[in-house]
Amino acid sequence: MPNLARPAALTLVLALAVTGCGADVSQGEGKGDGATASSGSHYPVTVENCGERKTFDRAPRRVVTNDVGITEIMFALGLEDHMAGYVMPDDKGDLTAVPWKDGYQKTEWLSKDRINKELVLDARADLVFAGWNYGFNEGEGFTPAALQRVGIDSYLLSESCRNGQGKARGVMTPLDALYTDLRNLGKVFDVEDRAETLVTSFREQVAAAQAKAPKGADRPRVFLYDSGEDKPFTSGAFAGPHDIITKAGGDHIMKDLKDSWTTVGWETVVARDPEVIVINDYGDVTAEQKRKFLKSYKPLANVSAIRNDRIVVLDYVDLVESPRNPAAIDSLAASLKSFGS
Q1: Burial of 148 (0-12, 13-18, 19+ CB in 10 A)
Q2: CA-CA distance, 71 to 53, in Å (whole number)?
Q3: Which of 94, 116, 184, 288 has the most other CB atoms within 10 Å of its CB?
Q4: Nearest one of 129, 46, 39, 40 to 83, comparing CA atoms
């Protein structure tokens, strides 16, 4: 992972202090209508994104994001004024209670359906922030290469980077992916101070959670259940739940899977006997329905988590790469600690 930090320009510090915005937008200019960088000497900038070096001559002005975690990365960086809008379904929980709820109020919800090329063209996007299986998909012809052919740039969510083993994803640990994207986007949008402040704050929050988390022999075996009945969809070592479980004091039973989100067999889950199951709450199947399925599925009857009714529910946005990951670690650490008391 490259070192993307650089000394902050005094003009940027002043701009942040006075405006609270991510970049200096001239008075009277609308969103995407000629916003200029707060430091004229900042550009061009180059970042490494999923193994590719990308150079930006200016900050993108009309970004379209896909999915809730990606959208909230932009909001956490204060980049609403650089967005044309976001795409995501309406099953992502209460968006009015999050720390960056103002971002949702200021930014257009472009679609509750799948992102596609026509949508981003209609939005006059100059950059799409999405990821493999977070919007980008060869089967539907919506890829960074397809966007480039129509003059639209892209930035890939680092959690979704492909690692060269077919379509397996993951090239760094999940929290490193979050910190990498914050720093990269901080550089691209000339808000590096804000990015570093977020990374420092998140590291401190994670360290505080770890201090009170179970340790040593008290660490429970934990399985992440996303969905699926014939076969469970779960997290490998490179999806958010791995770091969330591990930093919260759990032993992630699928840590040997060198992929992000993937499918396994129930026989593997039974053999590894999780003591706690974390349910990913999203979609048409509710967390309670998932809980009922797990408790009634006969092959799991003797699994420790089922026998002792140790099931925790976290929201989707807690578990995918997002600024909510550190708070999810704190929450899960408290739950795991309570099970051991």
Answers
A1: exposed
A2: 22
A3: 184
A4: 129
pLDDT < 50: residue spans in the chain: 1-39
Sign of CA dihedral 183, 186, 192, 193: negative
Q: Do 222 and 286 contact (CB within 8 A), yes or no?
A: no
CA torsion sign for 289, 292, 297, 302 is: positive
pLDDT of 40 = 60
User: And the tokens for 46?
Assistant: 């180059």
Instruction: Determine the Cα–Cα distance for residues 116 and 147; give it in Å rounded to an integer.
Output: 10
SS (H, E, C) the chain: CCCCCCCCCHHHHHHHHHHCCCCCCCCCCCCCCCCCCCCCCCCCEEEEECCEEEEECCCCCCEEEECHHHHHHHHHCCCHHHEEEEECCCCCCCCCCCCCHHHHHHCCEEECCCCCHHHHHHCCCCEEEEEECEEEEHHHCECHHHHHCCCCEEEECHHHCECCCCCCECCCCHHHHHHHHHHHHHHHCCCHHHHHHHHHHHHHHHHHHHHCCCCHHHCCEEEEECECCCCCEEECCCCHHHHHHHHCCCEECCCCCCCCEEECCHHHHHHHCCCEEEEEECCCCCHHHHHHHHHHCHHHCCCHHHHCCCEEEEEHHHHCCCCCHHHHHHHHHHHHHHHHC
In this prediction, residue 240 carries a pLDDT of 98
In this predicted model, what pLDDT tens digit does every residue of 135-183 receive, in sequence order? 999 999 999 999 999 999 999 999 999 999 999 999 999 999 999 999 9
pLDDT at 30 (0 to 100): 35
